[in-house]
Amino acid sequence: MYRPVSGTAILRLLQLLIVLALVVAGNLSAQTQAEGIQLPNPGTDLWREVRQRAQPATPGPTSPMRQAPGIDLWSEVQQTNPVPAGNTQVKSVDSGMLINPVGDQWRRFRMEMLVPYGGYVLGGALLLTLAFYLIRGRVPIHAGPSDKRLLRYTVYERMIHWFIAAIFLFLALTGLTMLFGRSLLIPLLGPEAFSLLASASKEGHNLFGPLFLLALALIFFRFVRRNIYQRGDLAWLLRGGGVIGSKHVPSNFFNMGEKSMFWMLVLVGGVTALSGIILVFPILGLGRELMALSHVAHGVTAMAMMVVIVGHIYIGSIGMEGALEGMATGYCDLNWAREHHDWWAEQCEQNGEVVSVEEAAGTEGFAQGAPKHAPLGETGK
Amino acid sequence: MARMKFYCDAERCIECNGCVTACKNENEVPWGVNRRRVVTIKDGVPGERSLSVACMHCSDAPCAAVCPVDCFYTTEDGVVLHDKDICIGCGYCFYACPFGAPQFPADGAFATRGKMDKCTFCAGGPKADNSAEEYRKYGSNRLAEGKLPLCAEMCSTKALLAGDADVLSEIYRKRIVYRAASSLQRGVSYQDATLRSPSGLTGRASSNE
User: Fold this and answer.
1) Looking at the domain that runs over A146-363, which CATH code has it been given?
2) In A248-322, where does DSSP find H-type helix?
């Protein structure tokens, strides 16, 4: 319904307008007052003028960031892309790069992650192994040592095993010297003596490092067939290889744990070896980004290998009765084989490959061919 | 004590490589090693600038942090130096350094890295000042003679400055103020022009220092 505007309403509107006008006028006068004040710093005027001139005449697509060319320049100086952005007469690795974008990340990785956590993980693995030994003790041959032997590893197999073992231990010790020496060994040896040790470690690590790749290849081609996963491995895994519960878990020539270690060694060790090859040849002129990445890969994978090898060395030496025999003499005890690799032992017995202690001692494995092992798919059941 | 710093003024550097040559000659740096280099960005396009870079003698030096044999030390003047008798040439300082300062002569089997070499701020090394051994391993020790690094002393446009950080920042602050004034007088901003001597201004484009 239409109602004419009343007189009081018009008055109210007028009131409101007057108030608004007063407020606006007050603001304006305050502004003019402020501009009129002479500030003691003449630089204020200067900067006001500079800022006004820096305003683009027409607000266009130019972003406000582009008003200062220094920002452009700085973004090229502090480049985030590790491809050199500049030109220089000095021709060497990354010489056209003013600020290395990955150096600080690498520093944080090495000093705040690899050194402390690597130490914890490695120390933890050693402590866990010790605790396991103290709790579970040595795994005995339950049936007692027999006077029968089985050929487990040929001379060639033992040779490549001890070849890679020696190289691995040497590389691990020299690598750990360079990683933890500053915090652990300098206080003991002093800087000069440690420098000598570290220098020898570096040269030795560089010289023997590439041989690890060769040893790894030899191991891979010799043992890959026996390390392919097969039926029964899942059951072994689910029962923790016999650690869970007291019942024995059957397995073939290699059990699931050994197979997993083999594949871990091949894959992780392969990364360690290849990243090491990148690090050992600065003559290739590779950039710092790749070098730093390789170092990260090298450190992490080497640490993982060392942890697993601690377990491998333990179970192959003091952790299990009869385990070292096969790799040391080439022959293993028949009872040991029955208890730990029963499907393989069964097949050897069927093939009549059991020899006496005297026979084994006589040949030392030199006259023997490769031990027959269950072909793929035949688990000896 | 003074805190020694380098400063390179991108508005003044003309990419003459005089600093590189001066350094190489003064310190008899081995073949293939350059302690200092001039890097040009936006080479050949508008906004081109050059900067001379060497070791910046960081307060929290990444090289010293990652060194596996702890061969770095900082002198009373804030100069980061290293001991070549301790260095094993592992290259870690090169990975960590933001400025690419550590250099390595090719050495040994597979041409791996030899002992690291870098700018010493013309302050020699841990051997006796100005001894023959110090000169052979680290180059000249001008600081011990009361002189500043030769690269900065030779800079023809005084783009590269070396010395106490407070003095350098004071010089650079003056330059900035004069530049702002000159660009204002010329009616241009940083956006549209490089800096030249203003024709109509009684002042200067930059300070005399």
Assistant:
1) 1.20.950.20
2) 256-280, 288-316
Tokens of A22: 């007063």
Give the pair of three-digit tokens for residue A105: 């990340």
Q: Which domain holds residue B128?
A: 4-165
| Contact criterion met (CB below 8 Å) for A340 and A236 | no
Tens-digit pLDDT profile for residues B85-123? 999 999 999 999 999 999 998 876 677 788 999 999 999
pLDDT at A374 over 70: no
The CATH number for B109's domain is 3.30.70.20
Overall domain count for chain B: 1
Residue B93 lies in a domain: yes
User: Chain A residues with CB inside 8 Å of B113's CB?
Assistant: 282
pTM for the structure as a whole: 0.78
> Three-state DSSP class for B146?
coil
In a domain, B46, yes or no: yes
Best mutation target, A107, A278, A289, A298, to test chain B (most B CBs within 10 A): A107
Nearest CA in chain A to B24: A90
ipTM of the complex: 0.84
Judge contact between A252 and A380, C-beta under 8 A.
yes
Determine whether the interchain pair A182/B41 forms a contact, defined as Cβ–Cβ distance below 8 Å: no
Partner-chain contact A95 B37, CB within 8 Å: yes
Nearest residue, CB atoms, A288 vs list B62, B88, B95:
B95
